[in-house]
Design a protein that fits this description.
- By secondary structure, this protein is an alpha+beta fold.
- It has one domain: YerB-like fold, CATH 3.50.90.10.
- The protein has helices at residues 7-29, 133-137, 151-154, 156-159, 190-195, 219-223; strands spanning 77-82, 98-103, 109-115, 143-146, 163-166, 174-176, 186-188, 210-211, 225-226, 229-233, 240-245, 250-255, 258-259, 269-270, 272-278, 282-286, 292-294, 300-308, 311-319, 327-329, 337-338, 343-349, 354-357.
- Strands 1, 2, 3, 4, 5, 9, 15, 18, 19, 20 and 22 form an 11-stranded mixed sheet that branches. Strands 10, 11, 12, 13, 14 and 23 form a 6-stranded antiparallel sheet that branches. The chain has a two-stranded antiparallel sheet with strand order 6-7.
- The radius of gyration is 41 Å and the shape is globular.
């Protein structure tokens, strides 16, 4: 016997299937769950605070910029050295930190050699003081050594705050040699001069020029133009010249056409040659036969050149007062830095002297 479901049963079953289908369909079409908002977690890092290392500043000789392991507390000594043909070859010029060349009476060249980093036992010939020496020696704050001078000029030395050491007054460290005739035979010992500096003139000198750390950083080397020679006409009696020598890294000096040497035979040279054009007026003092004694006006500003490393740079010089160092400035007012080493300063009389760069 076959069973057949009733119509009502079939209707209820169909309704159930419809409900199940609707539920299933609803489950398939519902909105997906939204992801949670992102959370940023910043790690906690404790800062490490350390003191930066101190920059390494080398110890240098103040008048040359050359590095040294130890800087002794001793003065610079300025010595008036003769430069006439009767005085050449001189002794000790090659050991000076700075040499200033000036034109005195009768158009003769005379030098102010400044010693600090080296102390040669014999230097000379030592000659008399002149008015222009005060503006050179006063900024060094040490002794000025000379042999005699006019009474009026001698009075300028203490007036400028300088300790004078005068051979005529028996200053220690000077003596006459037998291999030259007077007055070209007064010589002296630098260490003795240093040892006899008084309390006001015995300290390490202030820097006179700015120096680069290394030669290749010198202002003239970086910004100057190539040059092989620098020729000067300082007076009718003095025409020194300087020739660049790459092998030694120095400018080599000649007196006219004659190579300049010291008594040992070594050639005179300089790492830096500074040319300063300045007024060269009559000082009001007179030499023998009434000849005028000139001086230089070094307080103010003027034209100049710096020769370093086979390059020459035009500069401006400036000096605030007699007892302050002479400053060298570029065209835009920046301080000129020389190469470490010795320096010769050529004081070129304005209007009568000349500088030729070749």
């Amino acid at each position: 016997m076959r069973f057949a479901p009733s119509r009502s049963l079939r209707s209820r079953a169909a309704a159930g299937l419809t409900v199940l289908f609707a539920v299933a369909l609803a489950g398939c079409t519902q909105e997906p769950a939204q992801p949670p908002d992102p959370v940023t977690v910043t790690p906690t890092i404790e800062p490490v605070r350390t003191t930066p290392p101190e920059p390494v500043v080398p110890t240098v000789w103040p008048l040359t910029g050359v590095e040294t392991d130890e800087l002794p507390d001793r003065p610079a000594v300025a010595v008036k050295i003769e430069n006439s043909h009767l005085a050449r070859p001189q002794t000790g010029l090659d050991q000076a930190d700075i040499v200033w060349e000036t034109i005195i009476d009768f158009d003769i060249s005379r030098l102010v050699a400044v010693f600090h980093s080296q102390t040669p036992e014999g230097i000379g010939p030592i000659r008399s003081v002149r008015p222009m020496d005060m503006a050179i020696a006063a900024p060094l704050q040490g002794p000025l050594v000379f042999s005699g001078g006019q009474a009026g000029i001698l009075a300028l030395v203490p007036k400028a705050g300088i300790q004078g050491m005068n051979f005529d007054y028996g200053a220690p460290g000077m003596y006459r040699v037998s291999f030259r005739s007077a007055p070209h035979n007064v010589y002296g010992d630098v260490q003795t001069f240093m040892d006899n500096a008084d309390a006001d003139h015995s300290s390490t000198p202030p820097q006179q020029f700015a120096f680069a750390r290394h030669a290749e950083g010198a202002t003239a080397v970086v910004s100057g133009t190539d040059a092989a020679t620098v020729s000067l006409r300082l007076s009718t009696e003095s025409s020194p010249s300087w020739t660049w020598d790459a092998a030694s890294g120095r400018w080599l000096r000649s007196e006219g056409s004659t190579p300049a040497t010291v008594a040992s035979g070594d050639r005179i040279g300089a790492v830096n040659v500074v040319m300063v054009v300045a007024p060269h007026p009559d000082s009001g003092f007179n030499a023998q036969l009434g000849a005028p004694v000139p001086t230089y006006n070094l307080v103010g500003d003027g034209q100049g050149w710096v020769a370093t490393g086979g390059k020459v740079l035009e500069v401006t010089w400036h000096k605030d007062a007699e007892d302050t160092p002479l400053q060298l400035l570029t065209a835009d007012g920046q301080t000129v830095e020389l190469a470490p080493g010795n320096t010769w300063v050529e004081l070129v009389p304005q209007g009568t002297g000349s500088v030729t760069i070749g």
